[in-house]
Amino acid sequence: MSSNVHTIAQTGFGTGTNDLYDRARPSYQIVALDALFDALRNKENLNVVEIGAGTGIFTRALLAHPKWSSSIRTIKAIEPSSGMREVFTRTVTPLNTAIDITITEGTFQDTHVESGWADVVLIAQAYHWCPDYEAASKEFARVLKKDGMVGYIWNLEDRDGAPWVARLRDTIEVHEKGTPQFRHMYWRATFSTPTYTSLFDPPSENVYTYTLTGTKESVVDRACSKSYIAVLEENEKKGVIQKIKDMLEEEGREGRVKWIDEERGVFEYPYKCWVVVAQKK
């Protein structure tokens, strides 16, 4: 993996972690995908660059979305992790023969995409790992056509949606150890860099609240798919898992979980989705 990738990301998303990530992480809501599509200035024969494409969760959401799937000509997916690229190749490339889809190694600062090729750069659940916002903005501006767009999107468990989600996040986030997680909003510094302010319009942002179905197992898996949990020593990781299970048992017993099917252990899992759009001038 590139030396431009954070060491925790290299290990936490390295080979052997990727099938869990692909199984555990949620997909993207139609309303959020609609918002990204509606913001496009050009909506036909789209050349898409997806940076930090991971295992293909977002790409598969694009291919399942009627507006996006009927408008895309080519997707050039960029991903620094070889393990994630392997899962992407296995899960995405068999899905659609009408769209030309490739995945190659690269980073926010170096996509290897030709200049002026892309109608849109899309980044799902990844940009908070960017180590150099100025260099990334230069790269986005270089690969985009005039009037092109950058779309950033993140899903995050909604600590305001239920007390147990706040307890869950408190349990796992103590292990972040300074990693540049989305919730810290460090990535907002992008929009005051010299390249961004000179070549892009001020960003627009929307936040969507939604609810997924959860089980004890899916909550544990999602927690373990976090890079900073994946890198824990095995006994420490087991301790975190047990804390999550004990917390969910207590919250369910005390009636603080909103059950969908209590007998089957299925409950509401509150989430939020952030969509940020940057238009090239």
Explain this structure.
This protein is α/β, with parallel strands linked by helices. The chain has a domain of 189 residues: Rossmann fold (3-Layer(aba) Sandwich), CATH 3.40.50. Helix content is 38%, strand content 24%. It contains 12 helices and 8 strands. Strands 1, 2, 3, 4, 5, 6, 7 and 8 form an 8-stranded mixed beta sheet that branches. A hairpin with a 4-residue loop joins strand 7 and strand 8. The model has no long low-confidence stretch (mean pLDDT 93).
Q: Label the overall shape.
A: globular
Q: Which oligomerization state do the chains in this entry correspond to?
A: single chain
**CATH domain topology of the domain at 7-157 and 180-210 and 273-279:** Rossmann fold
CATH architecture call of the domain at 7-157 and 180-210 and 273-279: 3-Layer(aba) Sandwich
User: How many beta-strand segments?
Assistant: 8
Which consecutive residue ranges, at least 5 long each, have pLDDT under 50?
none
- For the record, the CATH class of the domain at 7-157 and 180-210 and 273-279 is Alpha Beta
Distance between the termini: 33 Å
Which whole number gives the mean pLDDT?
A: 93
By DSSP (H or I, 4+ residues per run), the number of helices equals 12
Based on CA atoms alone, the radius of gyration comes out at 19 Å
Classify the secondary structure makeup into a structural class: alpha/beta
Q: Helices and strands, in N-to-C order?
A: HHHEHHEHEEHEHHEHHHEE
Beta content:
15-25%
CATH superfamily of the domain at 7-157 and 180-210 and 273-279: Vaccinia Virus protein VP39
| Biggest sheet details | 8 strands, mixed
Helix content: 25-40%
GO molecular function, one term: S-adenosylmethionine-dependent methyltransferase activity
Protein name: Methyltransferase type 11 domain-containing protein
Pfam families: Methyltransf_11
Keywords: Methyltransferase, Transferase
